[in-house]
Amino acid sequence: MVKDAGRSARASVWLEDKARRGGRSGGQPSGLDRARITDASVRLLDTEGLAKFSMRRLAAELNVTAMSLYWYVDTKDDLLELALDAAFGELRLPDPDAEGEDWREQLRGLAVEYRALLVRHPWLSPLAGRYLNIGPNSLAFSRAVQRVVRRAGLPAHGVMGAISAVFQFVYGFGTIEGHFFARVADTGLSPDEYYEHAMAQVTEAPRTAEVVEESKDLMAARGGDTVGEMLDRDFDFALELLIAGIEAMVGRG
After folding, report:
1. Spatial contact of 171 and 113, defined as CB atoms under 8 Å apart
2. H or E element: which one contains 39?
């Protein structure tokens, strides 16, 4: 059973020479290349979402036949992997070796960039958990994160735990935030209108009113005049807690 499962496991598009750039040899459709197909995939995922994405839908977007796409990729999974790494290419990465740069500021910058990416592309978070993420842009991000956190001065056995603490937090926060804004977009309301409407409903419902009442002081202390400001405050404070935790662990030696 295990042997059969291993044989059926899918190889990454970035392995086994699957990441070819020019299409199969001879007879490939004119006007297409892998970069154009990948860019169209990202646009389609942004506008229609992961659930509606298909080779047929992408072919219609490019005004070609679905079979034409198979000159450049073997499967839809290959396309999704390519789109995932293309999105990671939008991240602005610091130079961890730059003199005079504070690792804390660079870590904050990486966290903010990753959060924005997850919100900008809500389809990214499920794919990041599905594939190996070994494309060049994803690897560049991982390398920058690792090199920045190493500079904090943690013992080697604690570096990956610190990275997990920060970036799994960002992954979760950005994923929920992206889902929230996608849900808001479907209603036609602004985020602030949606929030006010939702709070009015839960305040009036007997099953949720008590919980809302108990947290009124926390919501007031949270600050922020808009949903965006409230989310930014929560994110910034949580990130500072994590950075302070790394500093505390360094101090313990």
Report:
1. no
2. helix 34-48
d(CA 107, CA 139): 16
The pair phi, psi for residue 222, each rounded to 5°, is: -60, -35
Q: Which residues contact 22 (CB under 8 A, 6 or more apart)?
A: 28, 33, 34
Averaged pLDDT, 146-160: 97
Cβ atoms < 10 Å from Cβ of 162:
21
Give the pTM: 0.89
Angstrom distances, CA of residue 243 to CA of 91, 114, 230, 238? 21, 16, 20, 9
Separation between Cα atoms, residue 216 and residue 178, nearest integer Å: 25
- Residue 60 identity (one-letter amino acid): A
Between CA 209 and CA 218 the distance in angstroms is 15
